[in-house]
């Protein structure tokens, strides 16, 4: 059997990627409580919100308030998604130290999601990344629809390799390769990583899976075997994708932890505290949590 | 990466293990339609029902009728669970050619489930297996609670190795190592198989996972890496465990197929036909299907 990483970093994206796709309105108080419970559980990377137009993501319109009110735990990094210079400037004003940019590997998805083609979005992100780094911020990159696009179908591996390299060239410290619609399976993960890790070190790659077809943890296991040691997840399995009917959210942080704990991989995160955070927000949602672990807990 | 098997046998257990744990009453007609759709999908091993006391499994009281009315597809094997000689005799009378016996790796579970301790159950199963083989039947063995027991907790690996060997010594052609309550994770699967496959060839082992904590497919992937090539699953993810609150059913056949198809592993089974069979029975249940694949299908 391949040797797995001894420790893994979990990037908790429930407050941003999760809540962004929830139809129930969540109050600022509840968001702050959710984030504070997650940091208390030991999560050291939390994507808190996004500085985007409120018409684009109404759920996250209170980003400034959320950042103002969370209790910053020493050693924990709190990040925000920024789509453009306006977003970056608002984030900097709010005292945000970590931002993320969101590119797509599908031309059609890029245009539908942000009204910009891939090359145009990279021009914007160069400006954003330069300014963010100049201001002392750390910048993470997402590459969405990296396995398949709801409009174009399967995305070619060489395009993902090329766009990942372009994101790293901008100066991002890490690229989260994202299965936005949850169709990726371990065969695709093998194929992608066997190519991607030729030019790119595994330490610069995170994987971001949605569990729409139940593949997320098998995909994580495959990626662990390639030495990937950073994974995105959302407490409770919050989220979804507005373009993909029936899609569920990010893989649940507590389900991921159950597997990593069982494999003896250190994360520094306490599973039942994460599950408690998910239970705290569950009554506010319009649907049951998708975390199998939390649903099975007595 | 380890080499995976080129082909896998799926043992479809939805009609027995799945329906046995469903609270909605399913008519004989509907069961027959479910089984016939599953054989038409290409499944070549289908556990159809059980010859047990109707007070123990009321849902399966019509086993004789179901066996009488299914359309037997050439090349497909249709099996039944038999707990004792009475069950075996009824199965033989019904023309059943393949039976399964059901031992437990936990003394407490064995007593609660069948009113017999492990050794006592083996005495019965020796008689049943001898008689079945003498009558020309093929006998499969289950080893339930092989990872954990709802009463005793984690089950020691050496006990599983010993009981698997004892089942094979009875003359069963295969032992289905079963995670009855769905707590197994890839770390446990690695630990178990690294010991179990010392005395036992991988061709004599099947794995049977419930998806209660979302680990089933990651567990299957781990087992594939050990060369295991037979897995139990239920179309739609039907089932559960009456002793484990919140537990979901067997891993869904279509979710398993999505992963195996993606890995290029041949099964001879058509995923959308299996999903159609699950959709056929879904309106009769008291809850949504647990198959992520079928839920995400448009």
Question: What integer value in Å does the Rg of chain A equal?
Answer: 17 Å
CATH superfamily of chain A: Aldolase class I
List the strand order in the largest sheet of chain A: 1-2-3-4-5-8-9-10
CATH topology of chain A: TIM Barrel
How far do the termini of chain A sit from each other?
Answer: 34 Å
How much is the average pLDDT of chain A?
94
Question: What does the largest sheet of chain A look like?
Answer: 8 strands, parallel, barrel
User: Largest interface, and how many residues on either side?
Assistant: A-B, 39 and 39 residues
The second-level CATH architecture of chain A is Alpha-Beta Barrel
* General shape of chain A: globular
Low confidence ranges of chain A: none
- In helices, the fraction of residues of chain A equals 40-55%
User: Beta-strand percentage of chain A?
Assistant: 15-25%
Question: How many helices of chain A does DSSP assign?
Answer: 12
CATH class category name of chain A: Alpha Beta
Say what oligomer this is: homodimer
Q: Kindly name the structural category of chain A.
A: alpha/beta
Number of strand segments of chain A: 10
Number of domains of chain A: 1
Return the string of H and E elements of chain A.
Answer: EHHEHEHEHHEEEHEHEHEHHH
